[in-house]
Amino acid sequence: MADAQAARSAGGTAIVGTGRRPSGIEKTMTSQGTPHGRFQRAIHRRHVQAAEMAAREMGGLSLADALLLCELLANADPTRYERAA
After folding, report:
1. Do 78 and 85 contact (CB within 8 A), yes or no?
2. Is 35:52 a contact under the CB 8 Å cutoff?
3. 81 pLDDT band (50/70/90 cuts)?
4. Residue 9 contacts residue 1 (beta carbons within 8 Å)
């Protein structure tokens, strides 16, 4: 705030942030959180479909996340596990 006052007193125009990100830097986040957060919750709850949807949104999985998803598939749907592994 002091910087804005200093700019005004020097004859400049104060620029006040809008709280919005500059164009091109925006990330998608729903009210449920980030895709990775939803992925973690789905794994914890053993919900295969929600984990797969979040994984697709993430675009790629770390090795640890991929192993968690494979473990979930092995326990919940062994026929799909073979393809995923």
Report:
1. no
2. no
3. confident
4. no
pLDDT, tens digit, for every residue of 34-80? 999 999 999 999 999 999 999 999 999 999 999 999 999 999 988 88
| Domains of the chain: total | 1
User: Domain range for residue 74?
Assistant: 29-85
| Residue 4 covered by a domain | no
Assigned domain for 7 exists: no
SS3 state of residue 3: helix
Instruction: Note if the pTM is more than 0.85.
Output: no
- Helix 48-58 to helix 63-76 angle (10° resolution) is 160
